[in-house]
Recover the amino acids of this structure.
């Protein structure tokens, strides 16, 4: 079995179903310039793409055990529970993940929170894995770099704001660099798996600050985790999300 076949099989086994049937062979989080958008375009049944890079590829920022549990268990569970939530909702099965999350307020009461939590979890982690993919640009370029300079003054100021939002997020949540409809960038936090998509903003950078993202290596030191992850960002993925 070649490496891609192995990755597809392992990811499928992790969630106990044929998770990758709706994806083309090139879809993995190692191809960050397309995969986050691919996930937002998915419809029921939703599938978990493989990482496509080694679990230890982001060490020392993210240790292999955390990477494995986070992708193969936590993210997989969001996908499984999103599918469970929609299995009897035939009217919603034709909607893309992007449509579900940006239209949360229009969903039936009985399914809205399940989509908010598990659909948000699927979308948010899809961006995060691409932002961690190794061998990407170590600094922003092009239109994203220009927008960061315009709205923050420097890349360092932007990442400092992302760190502050991550530290300031009480309990579980995310730190975000988002783009509004006019192209303006800002930094914000969100609780749980809430996504800026629901507020009409496009996520450009998303840093998971749930303890499951860092506790095995960093314990209570969220600040050290944020420094490490913000220093390891794949800016190609951010640039693709901004464009
Ligand atoms: Fe997470």
């Amino acid at each position: 079995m070649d490496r891609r076949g192995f990755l597809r099989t392992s990811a499928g086994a992790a969630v106990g179903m044929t998770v990758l049937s709706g994806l083309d062979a090139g879809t993995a989080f190692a191809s960050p310039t397309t995969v986050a958008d691919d996930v937002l375009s998915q419809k029921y049944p939703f599938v978990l793409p493989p990482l496509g890079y080694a679990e230890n590829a982001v060490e020392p920022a993210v240790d292999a055990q955390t990477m494995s549990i986070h992708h193969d268990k936590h993210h997989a569970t969001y996908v499984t529970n999103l599918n469970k939530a929609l299995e009897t909702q035939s009217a919603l099965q034709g909607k893309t993940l992007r449509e579900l999350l940006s239209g949360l307020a229009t969903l039936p009461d009985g399914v809205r929170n399940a989509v908010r939590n598990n659909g948000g979890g699927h979308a948010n982690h899809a961006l995060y894995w691409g932002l961690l993919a190794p061998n990407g640009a170590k600094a922003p370029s092009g239109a994203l770099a220009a927008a960061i300079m315009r709205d923050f003054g420097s890349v360092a100021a932007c990442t400092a704001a992302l760190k502050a939002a991550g530290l300031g997020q009480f309990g579980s949540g995310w730190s975000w660099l988002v783009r509004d409809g006019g192209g303006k960038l800002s930094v914000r936090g969100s609780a749980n798996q809430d996504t800026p998509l629901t507020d009409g903003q496009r996520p450009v950078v998303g840093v998971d600050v749930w303890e499951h993202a860092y506790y095995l290596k960093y314990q209570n030191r969220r600040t050290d985790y944020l420094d490490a992850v913000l220093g390891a960002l794949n800016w190609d993925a951010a640039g693709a999300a901004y464009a």
Summary: Residues 109-132 form the longest helix (24 residues). The first strand starts at residue 173 and ends at 179. The pocket of fe (ii) ion is lined by residues 70, 74, 125, 208, 210, 212-213 (CB under 6 Å).
